[in-house]
Description:
- The complex is a heterodimer.
- Helices cover 13% and strands 47% of the residues of chain A.
- Chain A has two helices and 28 strands.
- Chain A has a four-stranded antiparallel beta sheet, with no helix packed on it. In chain A, strands 2-3-4-5 form a four-stranded antiparallel beta sheet, with no helix packed on it.
- By secondary structure, chain B is mainly alpha-helical.
- Chain B is built from nine helices and no strands.
- The A-B interface holds A 2, 4-6, 8-10, 12-14, 16-21, 24, 295-296, 315 and B 2-4, 15-18, 20-21, 24-25, 28-29, 32, 46, 49-50, 53-54, 57-58, 99-102, 104, 106-107, 109-110, 113-114.
Amino acid sequence: xxxxxxxxxxxxxxxxxxxxxxxxxxxxxxxxxxxxxxxxxxxxxxxxxxxxxxxxxxxxxxxxxxxxxxxxxxxxxxxxxxxxxxxxxxxxxxxxxxxxxxxxxxxxxxxxxxxxxxxxxxxxxxxxxxxxxxxxxxxxxxxxxxxxxxxxxxxxxxxxxxxxxxxxxxxxxxxxxxxxxxxxxxxxxxxxxxxxxxxxxxxxxxxxxxxxxxxxxxxxxxxxxxxxxxxxxxxxxxxxxxxxxxxxxxxxxxxxxxxxxxxxxxxxxxxxxxxxxxxxxxxxxxxxxxxxxxxxxxxxxxxxxxxxxxxxxxxxxxxxxxxxxxxxxxxxxxxxxxxxxxxx
Amino acid sequence: xxxxxxxxxxxxxxxxxxxxxxxxxxxxxxxxxxxxxxxxxxxxxxxxxxxxxxxxxxxxxxxxxxxxxxxxxxxxxxxxxxxxxxxxxxxxxxxxxxxxxxxxxxxxxxxxxxxxxxxxxxxxxxxxxxxxxxxxxxxxxxxxxxxxxxxxxxxxxxxxxxxxxxxxxxxxxxxxxxxxx
Lengths: 344, 181
């Protein structure tokens, strides 16, 4: 998948303009070449000013600002992007059109393309395997061999399942009628667990599900047993985007909010001026939100996880998000057009 | 204020990267069509367009609104790049290299689009060169698909006059297009 000439040139020019803009203030701040005598005098004056400032308190400090995230890799790896997950020392994603599951090295290069012979609706790495969901089957891929080791047929009707979710020792398939666990030893589906409420969205961390429903409540379930742990009323109307520490980040009007899933307390709310928050990820000491502003291109915001304050922002080359995840030193965003971008 | 409401001159004078992006978005197709028409080659047109905008980005601090319209300034750069390319036989990449921009390979779809822009620019330019009454008649009948009778009422002339204006205008366009080829 390649972008058209006009869009690619636009991206190149914007990146060049941003580089110029970053460079310009620095160039302006640097002193012009001076003689050593002048340099010595200026340095001495600076020491005096610094001592005076320390004694008298000095001018008010500016608000701390973080450097804007920047693109370190941009990889067109699929015709249609999907979720991105991590596991077994790799990044995992898939080409939703060709049906290829893609295993990527930590720098984003494709190390394996694994055919599933079908379009893929969803995929996630965990519970000892990479799992890919199609209209009719769940594919289990062995990370040791990069081969499909099980093709688990889903109950009819087709297209009635939409997600596969894993926790340590458990894998689930979500459908319109409820969810079914996968027996990891036999690769068979367990009986349906019907949801008692109509879910509107969910997210998960390593051990728990967080599910919102039509009644405006947020319910926490154990990831392995699906036992209900907490149920609270959402303080804002929104959908869960990502679990971050003890909080669940939900979309909220024109921005995002952090909610305590145990008490329902609103920890913070930040207006980003978006018409839609497309995705979020937690990691690298921040909450990352990709959203579509009311006008203009999509943006990426870096937020303080404790306060929700915007630390920095970046305009995006691509529209939309299908997958968003952090690794040790990078944020990865997959676009609907199959472009995987790494930020640092 | 939205960038869409800002003048070309203010966009060029601004240091915000988004301002230059808006300036680019407004004029990229015009420039592609212009270069395609002058070079008859989509690849060269794309190279020259990229080089022109890269040079414009680098030089935009030197642009003075009082010296003339921003689009005229852009076309000044474009004409220079075109003249250089015609002299050398290829489009140079100096401005792009300075900004770290790679050359973009065109897809078949890109080539088709640039070719269409060239044609569109020709037709548009030829239409603009017509007498105003012929131009308005062609726009109303051919582009807006309105009937002769409707146009006649609106322009307060007979239907036959409208037909004649459309017919003569199109004949002129055809003749000028043929003369160019």
